[in-house]
Amino acid sequence: AATYGIDPAFLGATGLSAGGHLVALAATSGGVGDLEGNGGNAEQSSTIQACVAMGAQSDLESARIGELSGKSDDPFYRTFLGGSQAELPQMFALASPRQHVDAKDPPLLFMAGETDDPSTHADDIRKDLESLGIATGFIPISGAPHAFLGQQGWFDQAVGTCADFFHRHLT
Question: pTM (2 decimals)?
Fold first, then answer.
């Protein structure tokens, strides 16, 4: 942090799709020992102070994820977690951002393409966060699909939204 002029007390994270899921998990799972790993920096906190999750699945225990992971040709969840939700319920719970929501979580904004699956709107986790008084919200990108960062106008909107959110919550 000192080398690059980064203040580790003001870290924000953003990602799209699988990256969106992972940053939402990082936002909600600070201090969860089973997710800390052994990357050689145990003396450094892995918590972040703000997050924008784009096109993210926030509840891996949902019926939708159960159905998708239950298909033998599922290319996502079976590969990522090693099996279906029915076979590995504890693994899906551990990997689910919603499972870890608590009062210590940072502000967490969700963004998704308007034509993306409604599960990326994070309705339930946003209600959980709101009930704890944690800043949250949902920004739909008008007319956009799941992979909206590939179109310049949508990319610019996403970057602007992230910059505004991080400026508001990290300064």
Answer: 0.94
